[in-house]
TrEMBL record:
InterPro entries: Cyt_P450, Cyt_P450_E_grp-I, Cyt_P450_sf, Cytochrome_P450_Monoox. This is Uncharacterized protein. One of its GO terms (molecular function) is heme binding. The lineage of its organism: Eukaryota, Viridiplantae, Streptophyta, Embryophyta, Tracheophyta. It comes from the Eukaryota. Belongs to the cytochrome P450 family. GO terms for cellular component: chloroplast.
């Protein structure tokens, strides 16, 4: 999908690799030119929220899921097929997951035994689903949650060894937790897992810290900054295009006609480069090679996943960080990332030009050598900037920023691959609005249909697919769709998964039933 295609072929229903809207954002007049521009996609996402881009690992042999952290991982490949140099490109989605029924093993049985003894019993009339170790491997967790949703309904208790969670897949119950009683819940498990990595960054932060940090960061996403970022998006896109054209040329020279790419990984690399340049003014060069910093980022993510699913928090034992090999590696990975961010912050502070917010927002960012968000924040706060808090914020943007964008692009590719007529309509809008010139922020704002594609993708496949909360006091959850009309009482300390995608499905089922 990274290349211009006069034809899109969907061979299997799956989430294909992340690359569709990029491909929509350029004209496809020259078949030898990769027509991929993530500018439209990224700009559209920036119009929707203040979140930055994020990225996924993309190694199909090590496919994993960060569901416990609310970060999505997509279980498939998207293959780029080019028939001949002067013929149209087509894209085929190919599943890398399996639908074979799982069998329980000895470890699963031990898990269930622990569940029966340690999970705290039932919660009134709430249905109970028993998880197993095998549910955490081989496919993303949210697929298992969806299976349990079909079996147990929109509110159920998931018991897994010594851990238990209430899983909510109902918009009424979600609104009760996230909006109507928001102050009665905190981020619980999510904060516990991510605090060693992100400190007091935006994701694990408590409400007061989150409000304070958001007030500091939000002014950086002003119009002139976004205009400057369009150039970054376009430059990074062209870097990816050159890589793919080189791969194609090598394939043609050896007599081949097809190249296979894990496009989720390709979009992840693209998004990391965008974050590096746009947020830090640092070029990770992920599209061309694996950066040691990026390798360390994935190391911390895998450790966070491990901690979220392990029975006993052995990493809290004194000396564990030096004795246990994976904990030593985790500390090494954190040091690599922190040293990089500390160096960038130090350099920004040494060259700062302290100004107030209004003057900073009127800068000529088009001619500014360093138009990064880090530069804005350091110049705005000057000597008062807290290095540790700033590093936590930057770490959050780096780690949690790229995953969601890559996931949205992946699902968008999947949807568009099944709807060629929508692709033609989107392409026509891009041709009419952008023409042959390079995109600008003002032009991208006119891509209404592209924006709607992104919005619809987010509606159907929300990112992140899971939100995590912990009850600060006893509460009674609404029964939800076809649940107990008297609701479900929960004690303080109950950990909750809010399945955003499941809530969307319940809304659909409820509408159809009426």
């Amino acid at each position: 999908m990274s290349y211009c295609a006069d034809k899109i072929e969907s061979t299997v229903p799956l989430c294909c690799g992340a690359c569709v809207l990029n491909w929509l954002a350029c004209r496809c007049k020259n078949p030898k030119t990769a027509v991929m521009s993530c500018s439209a996609t990224i700009a559209s996402l920036l119009q929707l929220s203040l979140s930055t881009a994020t990225v996924s690992h993309g190694n199909s042999s090590q496919r994993t899921d960060f569901g416990f952290m609310g970060i999505s991982r997509n279980p498939s490949h998207c293959h780029l097929l080019t028939l001949k140099p002067k013929r149209s490109r087509l894209v085929r989605c190919q599943s890398t997951s399996t639908e074979e029924p799982k069998t329980r093993n000895l470890l699963d049985n031990a898990s269930n035994l622990l569940t029966n003894f340690l999970s705290g019993g039932s919660l009134g009339s709430m249905p109970v689903a028993e998880g197993a170790v095998s549910d955490l491997f081989g496919r993303p967790l949210f697929f298992a949650l969806f299976d349990w949703f079909l079996e147990h309904g929109s509110v159920y208790k998931l018991a897994f060894g010594p851990k238990s969670f209430v899983v909510v897949s109902d918009p009424v119950v979600a609104r009760h937790i996230l909006r109507e009683n928001a102050f009665s819940y905190d981020k619980g498990v999510l904060a516990d897992i991510l605090e060693p990595i992100m400190g007091k960054g935006l994701i694990p932060a408590d409400l007061d810290t989150w409000k304070q940090r958001r007030r500091v960061i939000a002014p950086g996403f002003h119009a002139l900054y976004l205009e400057a970022m369009v150039k970054v998006f376009t430059d990074c896109t062209e870097r990816s295009m050159l890589k793919y054209e080189k791969l194609l040329a090598e394939e043609y020279s050896s007599g081949g006609t097809t190249i296979e790419l894990d496009l989720e990984a390709e979009f992840s690399s693209f998004a990391l480069d965008v974050i590096g340049l746009g947020v830090f003014n640092y070029d990770f060069g992920s599209v061309r090679k694996e950066s040691p910093v990026i390798k360390a980022v994935y190391g911390t993510l895998f450790e966070a996943e491990h901690r979220s699913t392990f029975y006993f928090p052995y990493w809290k034992i004194p000396l564990a960080r030096w004795i246990v090999p994976r904990q030593r590696k985790f500390q090494t990975d954190l040091k690599i990332i922190n040293d990089c961010l500390d160096g960038l912050i130090r350099n920004a502070k040494e060259t700062r030009q302290e100004m107030d917010v209004e003057r900073l927002q009127q800068r000529d960012y088009s001619n500014l050598k360093d138009a990064s968000l880090l530069r804005f924040l350091v110049d705005m706060r000057g000597a008062d900037v807290d290095d540790r808090q700033l590093r936590d914020d930057l770490m959050t943007m780096l780690i949690a920023g790229h995953e969601t964008t890559a996931a949205v692009l992946t699902w968008a590719v999947f949807l568009l691959a099944q709807n060629p007529s929508k692709v033609k309509k989107a392409q026509a809008e891009v041709d009419a609005v952008l023409g042959q010139g390079r995109p600008t922020f003002e032009l991208l704002k006119k891509l209404d249909y592209i924006r709607l594609i992104v919005v619809e993708t987010l509606r159907l496949y929300p990112q992140p697919p899971l939100l995590i909360r912990r009850a600060l006091k006893a509460d009674v959850l609404p029964g939800g769709y076809k649940g107990d009309k008297d609701g479900y009482p929960i004690p303080a300390g109950t950990d909750i998964f809010v399945s955003v995608g499941g809530s969307m499905l319940i809304s659909l089922f409820s509408s159809l039933s009426h």
